[in-house]
Design goal:
Domain ABC transporter: 5-240
Protein name: ABC transporter
CATH class of the largest domain: Alpha Beta
GO molecular function: ATP binding; ATP hydrolysis activity
InterPro entries: AAA+_ATPase, ABC_transporter-like_ATP-bd, ABC_transporter-like_CS, P-loop_NTPase
Strand content: 25-35%
Keywords: ATP-binding, Nucleotide-binding, Transport
Bound molecules: adenosine-5'-triphosphate
Largest sheet: 6 strands, mixed
Amino acid sequence: MTPVLETRSATVVRGGDRILDAVSMAVEPGEWLGVIGPNGSGKTSLVRVLSGTWTPDAGSVWLHGEALSSYAHRERARQIAVVKQAPHVAFDLTVRELVMLGRAPYRGWMQSFTGGDQDRVVAALKAMNIAHLADRAVPSLSGGERQRAFLAQALVQEPTAWLLDEPTAHLDIQYCFSFFQHLKQRQSPNEAVIAVVHDLEQAARFADRLLLLDHGSVVTSGLPREVLTTEHLAHVFGVDATPESTPHGLRLQVHGPFVSS
Ligand SMILES: Nc1ncnc2c1ncn2[C@@H]1O[C@H](COP(=O)(O)OP(=O)(O)OP(=O)(O)O)[C@@H](O)[C@H]1O
């Protein structure tokens, strides 16, 4: 199967440091890949490389078997949605207008949005429970409401590759859970999700596979229970923790940090 997104020995050098060091990874159609690792391990850098925001200094990135660099900007924007912590928006767009921008890659310059676009926007506003905010100016929203507006924008974009970088950081527990659940339920067999999530139990719950990064390199990748082992938690995260399987997924009993002397 051709991966949706793939890096081959992707290396990024910043300030003399290899912040990504020959990272090779791939996500298959229909797969949900959780990217985990301690602060500064390279998770956001990997998202930047996969989205084309950064070009690797060495190695390459592939989207549906073609070099990412060969894609026209508009086609790349149809295929890849990036959702990170929602930025503050200075301009006075309404929520509906912000969400509609997710359809822009499907429309030519000065081409009007269609009834189909409007329907998708209505459905996404409803799915993110922000239909009542549709005519509000985005800068007036709370952090969580703004985040849900950006998630709705990504939904209407209908990408084949989702790049999520802590997309639920502003969301309370209910919306956090319901967004991941919604995305999981509507994920089609040709769509792939790559999600950077700090909450390891959350990452394990939704991901088919986890990719563990440390110091810009891949430590391992595999099923959540193969990656979240006592050994990896100790060596990579520096915590004394015991993973436990429960009917609701993997739980981590964290006994405390290892303090280096
Ligand atoms: N533009 C840059 N110039 C120099 N160093 C950078 C740049 N961007 C990132 N870095 C460094 O690269 C390393 C990896 O950063 P990155 O943001 O990818 O980590 P992360 O795993 O996402 O971290 P966190 O969990 O804290 O969000 C860090 O040491 C960071 O300081």
